[in-house]
Amino acid sequence: MSLYKRGKTWWVRFSTPSGQQICRSAKTANRRLAQEYHDRLKADHWRASMLGEKPRHKWEETVERWLTEKQGEKVSLENDIYHLRRAHAWLYGKYLDEIDRDVLDELTKSRLSDGVSNTTVNRMLEVVRAILRRAEREWGWLERAPHVRMLTQPKRRVRWLAREEAVRLLAELPDHLAAMARFTLATGLREANVVGLEWSQVDLSRRCAWVHADQAKARKAIPVPLNAEAVLVLRQQMGKHSSRVFTYKGLPVTKANNHAWRKALVRAGIDDFRWHDLRHTWASWHVQQGTPLHVLQELGGWSDYSMVRRYAHLSVRHLAEYADSLCKIRPVSTNSVQLGKEQGKGEIGAFISN
Known about the structure:
Blueprint: E1 3-6, E2 9-15, E3 21-25, H1 31-50, H2 59-70, H3 77-91, H4 101-113, H5 118-137, H6 163-172, H7 175-187, H8 191-195, E4 202-203, E5 208-211, E6 222-225, H9 228-237, E7 247-248, E8 251-252, H10 259-268, H11 277-288, H12 293-300, H13 305-308, H14 317-324, H15 334-342, H16 346-353
Antiparallel strand pairs: 1-2, 2-3, 4-5, 5-6, 7-8
């Protein structure tokens, strides 16, 4: 049977001239539309087998395959899905070879007209670009992916809290969020890793915890040394839940960056601050205390050293010895200065000549 139903949705099934079995959802409850989809798909495969033409693939088919391959691979998949939904209205129903610079520029203009920032638009375009490149380079579905033109965006400064600001914020947070914020400031873990932390990932006797590779953004396991503050927070959570560390009214916390968090920021008088900025604060404090950047990279689980370089300006300890080396130049005598002036060099000339 070429057409059949699963629930309310029609599916198509047929064999290509080469013997390949095709079974795919038509994603419609309308039999006529399902038949059209079947006929078009079957014709595409016939032309590919008999005439050597490459079958054309639509955007939604490409997204479906990309999401399937990315399941369990990408921590930020929920954010990607959010951005794909924003692009859906412009790209749905288009064949990949129809998605060119003009289409992408119109998509960009549409998102900008919604009042979102250049940065938000770029996040969407990055996902679109990744899908088109995979369709070209790995699946052979596209002859050549179009160039995706990114918007200029301001370089965001690292937002972090001074110690007194952190104390003020913690005092305004409800107890369960304050505990999670204290733990983040002590370990630098991302929100998802703190929210999902389980007791099986903690060893208080060795004062360490760990993030499994499939939970880490860089897909590499992260060892987490626990300082005295982190250990204290964990001990205060013991006995509240059998598996999860952080709870609210006996149930595991699902999100930290919530309404209660935002209200606490207002009460504390802190502007332009996200939960993720607690991680920036942790990193900034480390650098200010003299932690080398390569050590910070390992502690924070960053795969790219450039991410750690964002904090380099907060400390000059690694440069101090080079600045001090100038002091080793012997003082310039009055006679040398006078001689330099007479020779037309001036004081700088005398300084260098010595």
